[in-house]
Amino acid sequence: MFGIQSRKRAVAVPRSRGRWWAALGASVLLLLLVSIVGWYWSREPDRYLLAADTTTQPVVTGYATVDTLIRTIEWMLGKPGGYLSNDITPPSVWLDNMPSFEFGVLVQSRDLARVLRNDYSRSQSQSTEDRDLAIAEPALNFDNDSWIFPTTESRYREAAEALRGYRTRLTDANRTDGQFFARADNLREWLAVVERRLGSLSQRLSASVGQARINTDLAGDRAAQASRPQASIVEIKTPWLEIDDVFYEARGTAWALLQFMAAAEVDFEAVLTDKNAVVSVRQIMRELEEALTEISSPIILNGEGYGFFPNHSLVLASYLSRAHSAVIDLRELLAQG
Length: 337
Prior knowledge:
Blueprint: H1 2-41, H2 63-78, H3 97-120, H4 133-140, H5 152-171, H6 184-206, E1 211-214, E2 233-236, H7 243-267, H8 269-274, H9 278-291, H10 312-335
Antiparallel strand pairs: 1-2
């Protein structure tokens, strides 16, 4: 009897260990699978993935800008993994790089849609706004993280559909329905928004290491006042947990701007040539291309400015700062007679 009991115990132990090892192996395999899916879904797009194909379409002023905006929205919704910013299930809920990238793209898409509605499609301040753009612009400004009715994806698809309607009316035979006015003042309106976005992102990226800055909020105007008193020296530092989010938001911004700048070069070709400003646009695009250089490090490092480890945020900030300066120069050039 003692021998039988001993054999039973000898058999029971390996079975228990076998189940434990099987569970561990399944967990490791699942973790590996989730990691691979997360990596695939987090890949950034090619630099000029969305350049409008004007070779097979009518050469109509405004087509490149509207088509590129539509395809940008379609990319956000149809890329690997789909739109991730509002996902609440694994592995999407564990990813933050691509949702931050999406947000940068989304902000630029919203800005361009607003300028399309308020400036590009209107001949003067008292002209009637375009009916499709009046739908697209507020739809794009819907919450970017709504996962239940209505979902974010449904509103952004509504925006893309309205933009398709506007694009169709730009190219149809009815010359009185649907307009795009490629004027220097209209382009300056969009560039003014781009200038502010790039300036803000450059400051947020630079603040990854923390800086003490002189407060220049009221500089240049003796009578200027603020609603609240502020210190003469301001300490600015991006929270540690937000540094990567700001980095990938800036990458998404640079990518979207690169697409929209390429489209603007097509639609505003006559204006840019007349102002001798084509090279200025290409300089902006060159800086944005450099900002999108492939990252060789497996993680984003944000060491001290002159420390042992590199600071990827500062590198990206330098490219965006140069693009910001180039945008300012281009706006001034377009303002000249």
